[in-house]
Amino acid sequence: MTAPIEPIGYDPSAVESRWRQRWAERGTHRTDLARGKDPFYALMMFPYPSAEGLHVGNLFAFTGCDIYARFQRLQGHTVFEPLGYDAFGIHSENFALKVGKHPMQLIPSNIANFRRQLDRAGLMVDWAQSVDTTDPAYYKWTQWVFLQLYKQGLAYKKAAAVNWCPSCKTVLANEQVEGGHCERCGTLVEQRFLEQWFFKISEYSPRLLKNLETLDWSETTKQAQRNWIGRSEGARLRFRVLDPLTDAGSAAVSVTTELKMDTAEVEVFTTRPDTIFGATYLVLAPEHPLIDTITTPTQQSAVDAYRARASKQDLVTRKTSKEKTGEFTGAYAANPATGELIPIWIADYVLMEYGTGAIMAVPGHDERDFEFATAFDLPIVRVVAGEGQTARTPFDGAAYVGDGVMVNSEEFDGMPVAEAKKVITEWLESKRAGKSVTNYRLHDWCISRQRYWGPPIPIIYCDSCGTVPVPESQLPVVLPNIPDFKPDDSGISPLARHEEWYRVPCPSCGKKARRETDVSDTFLDSAWYFLRYPSVGRDDVAFDAATTKKWLPVTTYIGGNEHAVLHLLYSRFITMVLHDMKLLDFEEPFTKFRAHGLIIREGAKMSKSKGNVVNPDEYIDAWGADSFRTYLMFLGPFEEGGDFRDSGISGVKRFLDRLWASVRDCTSEGTPDPEVMRKLHATIKKVGEDIPALSYNTAIAAMMEYMNTLRKGERAAHRAEVEPLVPMVAPFAPHITEELWEMLGHTTSVMDAAWPTFDASMLVSDTIELVVQVGGKTRGKLVVPKTITQDEAFAAAKAEPSIGKFITGEPKKVILVPGRLLNVVV
RNA sequence: GCGAGCGUGGCGGAAUUGGUAGACGCGCAGGACUUAGGAUCCUGUGCCGAAAGGCGUGUGGGUUCGAGUCCCACCGUUCGCACCA
User: Fold this and answer.
1) Helices A56-74 and A625-634: crossing angle, nearest 10°?
2) Cα(A783)–Cα(A769) distance, rounded to whole angstroms?
3) Which strand B bases fall within 7 angstroms of a protein CB?
4) ipTM given for this complex
5) What digits encode the pLDDT tens for the residues A165-217?
6) What strands, in cross-sheet order, belong to the sheet with A813-817?
7) Which of A198, A577, A595, A782 is deepest in the core (most CB within 10 A)?
């Protein structure tokens, strides 16, 4: 980096340390939660306190939020701006494993380091209301949240697949699987079924989707949630399985009469019920429970082998590999539309967790089915004809997925696809072969982690009473400090190795029982933390009713779009559940959400391997926090991020130096310059509009522009010209502006000053600069009265030689845009 | 593959409803003050051209008196999601 040889202008380190101290002494950043008027809850996503310390990305986000919050305070709101630490989870645990330290040792020192760095950044954070998710006083209530869901029947246990490393004998998160191999030992990862706790978030799909319409959120974030929830309309259709022993191969069998009532049925979900006449086979997911019943003896061993292979494959590669594999079960089902027998296959391109885990394959009109049918030589029938196609148009190596009319579909031939969807579904419904349904992609939230570094799930298993929730009075279930927190070859959860911990009496019958040894997902810690901040200190409740009513929902939430889906969706879900329990009077936690951009450097993402990581400490040492903050906001639109360059920061420092000098040298004698005052009012207006729109870069540019006007030709500013600028700069550069505010004779914090108001009458002028175009090309400009008419403007343009010379002959047309422009068409 | 966004000087980036393209900053050039300047201040700075003038917002079309902005096609790039039936 290019550090300055010596700081010029004002000395940031002296000013900044002085004000940090005064803020602490005076409690400038404390929020009067009980009595504050006009509450404004400005929330930023809390960080994971890594050992590397604060990242510029964190600081960029926090500064952006802080500016917004400070602006709201200057507007007269009582602002609450809390910050805490999201310190549980696999990141901390993996790092602890790597450096061979215990997370219980590591996290407090990481937090202390973060706090030191955050303090230097000049954030208006009320540290008295902080949270640390690893503090038992916090996770007591995380466990309480779990119990509320359990009470509502929204927490349940079921077996689900996890990535399993047979060599490390441990569960791996998806990000620990690299190309199907364990990132630690390189062994091929398998999947394994474990009993895990789930939250029924899928029940809330329609509400989570519908409420999005009412939220003031970044459109990209809303769209990401919509995609994730994945609503699709279609139908569930039932296919009767024929008894393979009696009917296999006899394609002429009439399906309607000869079937017994107890015959198995395959239910599929499809968004294209219209193509039922083209369904030439069925496919079940390898995990489908019906496979055992329907597979014929001759196919049994092949099917078993395929299922074994599918289960060996790890979850990541299975989902990304596009190659079609499968196996025939030997069984057939009847197509309810055609009555024909179609074979039932199994293949891993069908996912058990979506829809019904089974599909009807329409190879003519679905690319995946087409690939599969081609690979296994299954029949492909056209049932939709597009423009210029007929029932007999051959497929040119690909499925036809476009629009068109039905063909080869008996009485539905000629019907447009959209209409056929409806009509054919109704027809199938009347035949009791299906019904129209809305399906959601969103599946239940697995909150179990077979790990150490998280809050223990507050459940006890008793041989007599079964699953017993830990009574709320016994919370927290404290995570024990065990030295062997590593997942090792002994089995599943590290806590499961500690009998002295998991052996407890049953809370209901007192007999010997056993604790749940899994911990909960980090996303649960962060799904409710915003409820806790205002109620920190209350040991008796998770959140105080009156305080919550006053301060929530969160007024504005600012954070990274990497959490657009999971964190934000989980927070919404938990809030809805608590709302339904009448514990909250709102069901959406974040009224307004804005996603900030990403800071890159020299066009590339910052990463240790590229060696382009910016250490905020260095820059704050060299330039001061005020310059650093302002520079971060100046380098691009906040919502898009920007390119960090060492060279750019000097311009911002110069701006603050010039502000300093202007205040120091300002005079109260004489009168302010009217032109400067006009510019001042225009600047007040512009900055006051830009900040709430998060257009920080243009707000700073406007203030710089004003500074140029103010000091043009080395003039000394009048006090009235420069004083209003101080609170305007304050959100960006809080330390220096406190100092300047004091220099101007004020005894209270600049944050308790009012945002300057602008006088709209100052902005209007009697004359305007009229741009004159001839034939659409700009040829000059004229200073004219605002009320000029078209004829007058034309005459004036013609009279001006530098413009008039382009007006040759009679104009075809003259256009006046009042107050702006005159275009003469020749 | 699907979805969303973005392509503007040497660089980061500005541009109401279509109405002076390049604000602001960096860099660069010239000057002032200086023993000195990598500090500070002032002036200039899209490209070509001596000038007049011409050309310019990824490419090619279109609408319009007028397009960075609107429409169509394409190219490049970034970020999500990814066999979701």
Assistant:
1) 90
2) 5
3) 3-5, 11-15, 17, 19-21, 23-27, 38-43, 53-54, 65-67, 79-85
4) 0.93
5) 777 666 776 666 666 677 667 777 777 778 889 999 999 999 999 998 889 98
6) A777-785, A767-774, A821-825, A813-817
7) A595
